[in-house]
Amino acid sequence: MSRTSLFGRIDPATDAGHEDPPPRKGFFTDTSVCIGCKACEVACKEWNGVPHSGLDLLGLSFDNTGALGADSWRHVAFIEQRRPPASTALLVLPADRTAATAGDGTGAPAADRTSALSVEVTAAPVGIPEAARSAPGEGTGAPVGIPEVAIPGVVSGSRADLRWLMASDVCKHCTHAACLDVCPTGSLFRTEFGTVVVQQDICNGCGYCVSACPYGVIDRRAGDGRAWKCTLCYDRLKGDLEPACAKACPTDSIQFGDLADLRRHADRRLAALHGAGVGEARLYGHDEDDGVGGDGAFFLLLDEAEVYGLPPDPVVATRDLPAMWRRAGVAALAMAAATVAAFVGGTGLRGGVGGGGTT
Ligand code: SF4
Ligand code: SF4
Ligand code: SF4
After folding, report:
1. pLDDT at residue 62 is higher than 60
2. Is the pLDDT assigned to residue 14 strictly greater than 70?
3. 74 lines ligand 2 (CB under 6 A)
4. Is it the case that residue 201 has pLDDT exceeding 60?
5. pLDDT at 154
6. Count of helices and strands (H, E) across the chain
7. Which residues form ligand 3's pocket by a CB distance below 6 Å?
8. Would you say 283 and 300 are in contact if contact means Cβ atoms under 8 Å apart?
9. Which residue's CA lies nearest to atom 2 of ligand 3?
10. Vertex 152, ends 154 and 39: CA angle to 5°?
């Protein structure tokens, strides 16, 4: 029989009753190398048969998905900021993409990125003739009538004050998952990999999980009523395959592997970025002592969490349950004691009054 700890540091699979589970799996999404291609969104829909989420133009940059939802298990945010890129010093690409796949049977994190290839971004892009790169009338070549070419991430010209932040959001597969804690049917469950999966065949559509999730991830599907979200490709993990979104990501912004290894790698990546002058780089969901006990899917961000639409201090809804029940118990005992005291006191008073009347 499994038990569930409502808070504290735990191994969630063991805590859920799995005997001898494999190492906890998760995602480290390094948004500093996301190019916004949305291959992850498409791969997720393809593999999992997720319906399309409409072809809406939201008027919010190139973000036509808007948010995570029942039909968007990955959401690539495009955030336009009127400020220069923090640093163009370090663009990191994995040296060996094939080693990055945990589907190699090793269960290793997506590559040990200490071997990553560091590329200095310079003002000399590949494939653009010098003449075309020069503003008309400037540079080494004669003007050819091509407007100034802006190199992504390189400060130049009148658009130097604009930067894009791109980030692929997903279910966090929380250590303490509120959605799972409140589900009355057992539709949500903890897998042996430490991930959180919803079984639609026993979901009754009550929506408790929707209001409990501190990230606003899980959602009921219109016309269906049941709750849907990322499964961290449970079926693929069972087959020792990398999740579809991570497999499709061309820059390894989405890295899959053993969570402990990913956390160590994230620390190294953060130190490298800070060393390269990207002081605003930070990890999100990486702290095992935060309000959800740390996330199974955590992120490297280049700005405050709120900028990406993420809550700055998420707390699992059930964290305070033990304290609440303790206080309720104390209150109940106090009320019972007061009731007894009032009864005994009232009886004594009546006895005293009655005794006086007989004399
Ligand atoms: S609480 Fe929300 S983010 Fe955490 S596992 Fe559940 S749906 Fe995912
Ligand atoms: S892990 Fe699988 S289900 Fe989750 S977002 Fe990626 S592709 Fe979709
Ligand atoms: S996370 Fe990877 S696949 Fe998704 S948009 Fe970014 S670069 Fe593309």
Report:
1. yes
2. yes
3. yes
4. yes
5. 54
6. 9, 12
7. 34-40, 76, 166, 168, 248-251, 253-254
8. yes
9. 249
10. 150
